[in-house]
C-alpha cells in the first residue's frame, strides 16, 4: 500500500500527492471525520518544522491537520483510538506509535491516546521513525488511555 492509497482508504479521497495538487502549493489533506472536531485537536501546537522540513499550508486549512516538506509529511489528529493490534509498536520519547509499512513510506499512529494522531512519512525521509521525536509534545497533549506497547523480555 502506498501513502496515497493509505490516505484514500482512510478518507475516501487521496490526501497526498507527490507534488502539491492545489494551485496555491498547499497539500491536500482530509480532516478525520470521526474525532477531527475534538477540541483537543483544534488546540494542538503542531511543530513549526520537522528538522529542516518547513511547514506547508494544507487544503483545507484546519488546526487538526498539518504538513511539512516536499514530498509532504502529513499529520492528522482525530483518529479513533487504536484497538490492540499485532502490528509493530515503537516507543519514542515515551509515546507509543503503531507502525504500518507502506510501499512508499510509513504510516505511524499514536497508541494509547484518545483521539489518535496519524503521521504519514514518505520513504524520502528514511529512517522514518527519526521524525517522530518532533511529535512528542503534540502527542503528550492528547488524553491517554490504558493501552501501551507491550515490551517483551528477552528469551532464555
Report the span from N to C terminus. Answer: 37 Å
Runs in which pLDDT lies below 50 for 5 or more consecutive residues are: 4-21
Strand content: 25-35%
Q: Please summarize the sheet with the most strands.
A: 8 strands, antiparallel
Helical content band: 10-25%
SSE string, helix = H, strand = E?
Answer: HEHEEEEEEEEEH
Described by the principal axes of the CA atoms, the overall outline is: globular
Discrete helix count: 3
Strand runs, count: 10
Mean pLDDT score: 84
> Helix- and strand-based class?
mainly beta
Q: Strands of the biggest beta sheet: in what spatial order?
A: 2-3-5-6-10-9-8-7
Radius of gyration: 15 Å
Task: Describe this entry's structure for a reader.
This protein has 156 residues and is mostly beta strands. 12% of the residues lie in helices and 30% in strands. It is built from three helices and ten strands; from the N terminus they run H-E-H-E-E-E-E-E-E-E-E-E-H. It has helices spanning 3-11, 39-42, 136-140; strands at residues 27-28, 49-50, 53-56, 58-59, 65-68, 73-79, 89-92, 95-102, 105-111, 116-122. It has an eight-stranded antiparallel β-sheet with strand order 2-3-5-6-10-9-8-7.
What's the arrangement of secondary structure elements?
Elements: H1 3-11, E1 27-28, H2 39-42, E2 49-50, E3 53-56, E4 58-59, E5 65-68, E6 73-79, E7 89-92, E8 95-102, E9 105-111, E10 116-122, H3 136-140
Parallel strand pairs: 1-4
Antiparallel strand pairs: 2-3, 3-5, 5-6, 6-10, 7-8, 8-9, 9-10
Q: What's a quick, concise take on this entry?
A:
The protein is mainly beta.
Amino acid at each position: 500500500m502506498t501513502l496515497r492509497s493509505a490516505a484514500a482508504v482512510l478518507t475516501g479521497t487521496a490526501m497526498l500527492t507527490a507534488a502539491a495538487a492545489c494551485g496555491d502549493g498547499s497539500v491536500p489533506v482530509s480532516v478525520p471525520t470521526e474525532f477531527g472536531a475534538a477540541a483537543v485537536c483544534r488546540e494542538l501546537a503542531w511543530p513549526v518544522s520537522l528538522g529542516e522540513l518547513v511547514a506547508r499550508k494544507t487544503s483545507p486549512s484546519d488546526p487538526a491537520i498539518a504538513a511539512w516538506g516536499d514530498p509532504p509529511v502529513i499529520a492528522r489528529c482525530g483518529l479513533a483510538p487504536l484497538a490492540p493490534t499485532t502490528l509493530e509498536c515503537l516507543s519514542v520519547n515515551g509515546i507509543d506509535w503503531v507502525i504500518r509499512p507502506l510501499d512508499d513510506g510509513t504510516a505511524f499512529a499514536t497508541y494509547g491516546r484518545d483521539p489518535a494522531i496519524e503521521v504519514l512519512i514518505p520513504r524520502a525521509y528514511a529512517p522514518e521513525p527519526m521524525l517522530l521525536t518532533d511529535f512528542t509534545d503534540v502527542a503528550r497533549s492528547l488524553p491517554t488511555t490504558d493501552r501501551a506497547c507491550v515490551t517483551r523480555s528477552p528469551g532464555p
